[in-house]
Amino acid sequence: MPLSSPSPQTLPTRAPTPLLVSVREAASLLSIGETNCWRLVRSRELPSVRLYGRVLVPLAEIERLVADRLRSGQANGDQAGEGV
Question: Three-state DSSP class for 56?
């Protein structure tokens, strides 16, 4: 008996990865507090966009921030004397 392809209804679907996340979600992804995430947004160290009254952070910018911090040795938050 020939094998048949599963019907599209049985295949698991994954939600698309969002391009933008809220500041709260960005903070969670970075494992930092929301207040510290807002500081990064206000200082423009973490670029954001305003869309329909919401401040949203591009996932690409979160990844860039982490990569920059790892490259510069600031992964522990010791940029502003907040080192652990």
Answer: strand
